Amino acid sequence: MTFSTRQLQAFIAVVDHGSLGRAAQAMNMMQPSLSRHIKEMELQLGGPLFERHSKGMALTASGEVMAQRTRVILHEMEQAAEAVAELHNLGRGGLRIGAVAALGRLLVPRAIGRFRAEYPGIAVSFLEAPDGELMDALRERKIDLMIGTAGLVEDDIISLGQCRVADQWAIFSRADLSSLPADCTDLDTCLRHSWVMLHTGGSPRTIFEDLLKRAGRSMPNLAVETNSVGAQIGFVLNNDVLGWLPMQILSDYVAANIVRTYDVAEMRFARKFEIYRRSSGFMQSASRNFSTIARDIII
């Protein structure tokens, strides 16, 4: 039983895009050709890889297993090609980086800028997402490195070291909020307001809940929950609600007098960051070089 690289790539394209049409467009090939690749794989495997629906395609149990293995195979092929290229000193290849939102404003752009200045032949792609999504992307080999909250090491993910940057978190509102004094430092006063927060499970929400627990307080009334940092800011700017985000994200809004922050002692927190990679597999020099650059940046 053998599959061509093109067949494996076609299969993963359908997995990622959810339909033959979108996958064919992404791969720049005709849909009948892509469909033929999938059918040939299913014929060799002796069963369907997808359940066909009117709105798209979903993996079967066999497809789930195949997708996991296929991502590993394609990633190892890419890594092998890059390793050989390094031996020939071709200075080419790609690097896929993921980071939490706070780092996407300053640290990552500066690190990528320095990296590209030293290695102009390496193409860089960037994914911004919460820690949990980044860890999944790292496991699924959608990214090569992630920069996230310190202390996330697991059996299949290891740390390459801590960054020399931390983000300070703050309670914030729109600048003209009249229902809360601009110099308010009292946690209970803030907690009597309605809030907009990121969903449960992500690092920001977990940290917020832990700080309240240490202070002996309960969660405030949540008017809105969202998975988007931008949406959280938008809700705060247009409603009488409070939010809680890193100053690296809020600094431009504060400088423009669009939002104001509140220095509440119980909610002071500095989050540290580490750079992570998968615990198994070849680590290309591009990843090593970028991690060195990112760890040395001070903001």
Could you give a short description of this structure?
The protein has 299 residues and is α/β, with parallel strands linked by helices.
Describe what you observe in this structure.
The chain has 299 residues and is of the alpha/beta class. The protein has helices at residues 5-17, 20-27, 31-45, 61-87, 107-118, 131-139, 187-191, 203-214, 229-238, 247-255, 285-296; strands at residues 50-53, 56-59, 93-99, 122-128, 145-149, 157-174, 195-198, 222-226, 243-246, 259-262, 270-278. The chain contains 11 helices and 11 strands. Strands 3, 4, 5, 6, 9, 10 and 11 form a 7-stranded mixed β-sheet that branches. A two-stranded antiparallel sheet has the order 1-2. Strands 7-8 form a two-stranded parallel ribbon. Helix 1 crosses helix 4. The protein is globular and about 70 Å long. The model has no long low-confidence stretch (mean pLDDT 89).
